[in-house]
Each structure stands twice: as structure tokens, then as C-alpha cells.
Amino acid sequence: MRSYDAIKGVGSILVLLIATASFAFNADEKDLSGQWKFRIGDRYEWATTGYDDSDWDDIRVPARWEDEGFRGYDGYAWYRTNVRIGDELKDKVVVLELGYIDDVDEVFVNGVKVGQTGSFPPNFSTAYNALRKYQIPSDMLHFGEENLIAVRVYDSHLEGGIVSGNVRLFSAGVVPPFQINMTGSWLFNKGKKFDPADHRKIQVPGIWENQGYKNLDGHAVYTKKIKVAGDLASQRLVLLAGKIDDADMLFINGELIAKTGDFSGWRSSEFYNEFRNYFIAPETFKAGIENLIEVRVFDSGNDGGIYEGPIGIMTQDDFRKYWKSKRQN
């Protein structure tokens, strides 16, 4: 949306460095910059693995699409690329980084949505200045095979596309030994309690301002329903809720389990940078039925929400082993 040439002072220098820097990639990273397939327009079948994009245009990524032969185009367009992911990323937390996209994007891996930043029309909200990082659940990836990455982009005017920054897959560490991995899609609504009549899907982890709630400060609720097997429900568990900005309260089936920070007042919190590790007593989860998890969040300003993982449930024994191994490393 914005002209990057118009950004003044230090900002222009930083953008120039981001756009022109040569990045080094280690064994746990895969450089995705270069030629992608590209088509203007908007059809959701373009996210699917079976679609034939052989007649699409080739386009350089990252680059403004105006500089790649599409000057003057505003609206929707799609990018696609196939990448082979080897065993070096197996059992790792895999993050897809797409640099800076002007204005809004929606990202699919092997046909499954993994994230979105900004809001598409009719409720348009730009996120041209947000760095795109999406954690990809390991069960979405085909290790040792080709994987499709498809990116839907909307640009309102001026420059558009995957314009600058680092474009890569990389490892953010070893996947915790979760019995239930809860990274991915949750339900979300404004307010202090879950509203079954007024909610929509949101990606966790991820800042809520980048997912259509640009001016939201105050209370909101994340919810997810999970089934827990009897042998797991009878054990002492830990729910890892990642980092939350600012305060939160955890409810399971309507029962308050734990909380962090000041949930009721408009005070800044020192807890926004702390991982939430909540210990769950045996039989808190009901075996064999759907259990409702609610994470009620209060944000006092700036970014908000469950913004960093890991997110999931493991046994207390596995949790202790996991953190001991992290300290040793």
C-alpha cells in the first residue's frame, strides 16, 4: 500500500538493507527467495496441491510486483512454489518467514491454511509493515517430499506483493514432546467470555493486531475444543500456552485453572515476555468427550494475544525432561 521510497530517514535505510541484504542460511534453514509462480486474480483452488500452475508467470521473490512487469496493478494475486523439505527439519518447530507483504496475505501449506496477516475486503486492514512469520504444524509437512506453499495477497494501491525481507523456512528448535499439539486454528471473540454466537477463526500463535483486530485493546477470548484419551486424562499434565500479551486466565470446561498478570485493570504488565506453563490436575479433562479450553486475555496496549509458542499439552514427566534438556543445551 505505502510507497517504500517515501519512507523517510532511518526507516528508508532499514527497508533498503532488508531488501538488499544477503542472508546466510544454515543447515536448519531453506532459502525460498528466487523465482515463484504468480497470477493476478483470486481463486481458492489456487491453494490446492492438485492445481496445475505450469502456465503461470514467473516472478522474483521478494520484489514489488510493479517491478516485475505488473506496474499499476492493484487487487488480488497469488504466489505458489514447491519446496522439498528434508529430514533436517523433522521433529523441529518449522517456521515460514515471508518478509514484508503489501498489504494483506493468507498463507497455505499443502492446501491447508497456516496463517493470515491483515484483513481482506470488505473489512480491509493493511499490515504492510508487519513481519510475516508462520509456524507450520509438523503434521502438515511431507518430509523427504515436495511441499506446496501458496500465498494469497491483496494490495489496495501503490506497491504490492511480497516486497522485501527474508523469505525462508527455518527451525525454531525441537518440537516439545506434546501429547496434544495445539498450534494452529482456534476460535476467537472480543469480550471477557466465550461467545458462541460471535467468533471467528484465528491462528495461534500470532499477534491479533495482524489478524484483523488492529485497534483491539482490552479483553478477548481464545477457545478450542479437544478430546483427551482416558490414559492421558488420568495423568498430571502441563498446558503450555506460550507467551501472551499481557494478562491471561485459563479455564477448562468453565473452571478457572490458573492466571497470570492483572486481568481486570488497564495497567502495563511485566508478564508479556514470560512463557505460560500451567499445571493440570488429573481428571481435570474429561476422558472421551470434547473439553472446552478458554484462554481469556487482557491487553493494555500495543500488540496483544497469544503471540509466541509452543502451544500444547504434555505430561508433567515429559515436561520436566523437556526443560532439563533445554537447560543443558
Indicate the topology:
Blueprint: H1 10-20, E1 29-31, E2 34-40, E3 57-61, E4 75-85, E5 92-102, E6 104-109, E7 112-117, E8 131-136, E9 145-155, E10 161-174, E11 180-181, E12 184-190, E13 200-204, E14 218-227, H2 230-233, E15 237-245, E16 247-252, E17 255-260, E18 275-280, E19 290-299, E20 305-315, H3 316-328
Antiparallel strand pairs: 1-10, 2-3, 2-4, 4-9, 5-8, 5-10, 6-7, 6-9, 11-20, 12-13, 12-14, 14-19, 15-18, 15-20, 16-17, 16-19
What does this protein look like?
The chain has helices spanning 10-20, 230-233, 316-328; strands spanning 29-31, 34-40, 57-61, 75-85, 92-102, 104-109, 112-117, 131-136, 145-155, 161-174, 180-181, 184-190, 200-204, 218-227, 237-245, 247-252, 255-260, 275-280, 290-299, 305-315. It is mainly beta and 329 residues long. 34% of the residues are buried.
Q: Distance between termini?
A: 43 Å
Radius of gyration (Å): 21 Å
- Which structural class fits the helix and strand makeup? mainly beta
DSSP strand content: over 45%
Helix content: under 10%
Low-confidence segments: 1-25
Q: Within the largest sheet, what's the order of strands?
A: 3-2-4-9-6-7
The beta-strand count equals 20
Main sheet properties: 6 strands, antiparallel
- The string of secondary-structure elements, in order, is HEEEEEEEEEEEEEEHEEEEEEH
Number of helical segments?
Answer: 3
Gross morphology is globular
- Mean pLDDT, all residues: 88
Question: Keyphrases for this structure?
Answer:
3 helices; 6-stranded antiparallel sheet; 329 residues; mainly beta
